[in-house]
């Protein structure tokens, strides 16, 4: 997993538990990297799992809720690198289609061998899409938060349904995302 993701988690968490709290969290997880992340570095997924698990306990927050919160925050952190694409797409449904077709393609060019999720986006209506998500990481709740971040960017009302989920034994997740104009 890219270091930028770990750095974003730190930015989310430090205001909640403080710098000393973040350092205690890193120390308690016994991470191979010792928590010294660089944005372009690549780190083991197990480090993110350890940090999220420790945060769930520390914040007394369910893992799905924490991942949604983090996804929304992560989108804001990633937005500066993609404002042109966001603006070119013009609406959240078009942007959701561009994630796998353009952003993931660019990430793979810059970082060959990246472990990106496989996503297919299908129109359900003018303001709704279905996202089929497949990833061995099973970070569908993070994807929910990222989609909420997309809604924030475009200033739309957002709702979602998650009728199929890998955490319930399915081989993929289906997220039905609705972005209604305000």
TrEMBL record:
- Short name of one Pfam family: HNOB
Which GO terms label this protein's molecular function in UniProt? heme binding
Spell out the SUPFAM superfamilies in the cross-references. Answer: Ligand-binding domain in the NO signalling and Golgi transport
Location of the 4-vinyl reductase 4VR domain: 118-179
What protein does this entry describe? Heme NO binding domain-containing protein
What species does this protein belong to? Answer: Simiduia agarivorans (strain DSM 21679 / JCM 13881 / BCRC 17597 / SA1)
Task: Recall the taxonomic lineage recorded for the source organism.
Answer: Bacteria, Pseudomonadati, Pseudomonadota, Gammaproteobacteria, Cellvibrionales
């Amino acid at each position: 997993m890219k270091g930028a993701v770990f750095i974003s988690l730190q930015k989310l968490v430090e205001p909640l538990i403080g710098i000393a709290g973040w350092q205690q969290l890193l120390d308690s997880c016994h991470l191979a990297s010792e928590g010294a992340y660089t944005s372009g570095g690549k780190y083991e997924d197990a480090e993110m799992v350890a940090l999220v698990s420790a945060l769930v306990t520390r914040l007394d927050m369910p893992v799905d809720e924490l991942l949604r919160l983090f996804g929304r925050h992560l989108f804001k952190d990633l937005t500066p690198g993609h404002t042109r694409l966001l603006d070119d797409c013009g609406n959240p449904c078009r942007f959701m289609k561009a994630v796998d077709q353009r952003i993931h393609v660019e990430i793979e060019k810059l970082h060959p061998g990246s472990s990106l999720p496989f996503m297919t986006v299908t129109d359900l209506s003018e303001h709704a899409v279905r996202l089929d998500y497949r990833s061995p990481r099973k970070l569908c709740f993070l994807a929910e938060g990222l989609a909420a971040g997309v809604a924030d960017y475009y200033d739309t009302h957002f709702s979602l349904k998650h009728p199929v989920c890998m955490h319930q034994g399915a081989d993929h997740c289906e997220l039905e995302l609705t972005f209604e104009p305000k």
